[in-house]
Amino acid sequence: MSKLNAEFWSERYLKSETGWDVGEATLPIKQYLDQIENKEVKILIPGAGNAYEAVYAYRNGFFNTHILDFSPVPIKTFQNRYSFFPMKQIHLADFFYHEGKYDLILEQTFFCALDPSLRPAYVEKMKSLLTSNGKLVGVMFDKVFEKQGPPFGGSREEYLDLFSPHFEILKLESCYNSIAPRMGAEVFTILRNRM
């Protein structure tokens, strides 16, 4: 969908049309990070927006956390708000052209923002960005929306078909700690790269 480009998202940020933005890192991501003992893992948050998850991770000792977004508006806001965050770990780029290797990629509202026609390419790109046994962890919608997205919904069955050829499905279950407006409409996923 050509309209879902950097300009589209920049306009949404400039007009404060950011219904997905809850103003903080969500509980599923925070609780997952809280149980990780190895603080040296290299983390990527694609489609990071205001990147609250990155701030939470960094403030909790995950100093090798990277954010990526192709809209300059949230990137600039993030840089102004969090001057302590290393500039070299802030990537203004298109996800599909980003290069790097990460131990952990956090998924929070990025997948649902992409046109569904891009989902196979998303899976391939995630696989290429993750190290051997690297993990893709986060939340995805477990519902279909009545109106045209974004956000774009999906189902567990779709995710199994999409991810299982490339990832070991460690967890794909109802998210018990979603924010109230999304309760019962999200699945929590832990997917390990299959090399």
Automatic annotation (TrEMBL):
InterPro entries: SAM-dependent_MTases_sf, TPMT. Pfam families: TPMT (PF05724). The keyword Transferase applies. CDD domains: AdoMet_MTases. Signal peptide: none annotated. The keyword Phosphoprotein applies. One of its GO terms (molecular function) is S-adenosylmethionine-dependent methyltransferase activity. Keywords: Methyltransferase, Phosphoprotein, S-adenosyl-L-methionine, Transferase. One of its GO terms (biological process) is methylation. This is Thiopurine S-methyltransferase. The lineage of its organism: Bacteria, Pseudomonadati, Bacteroidota, Cytophagia, Cytophagales.
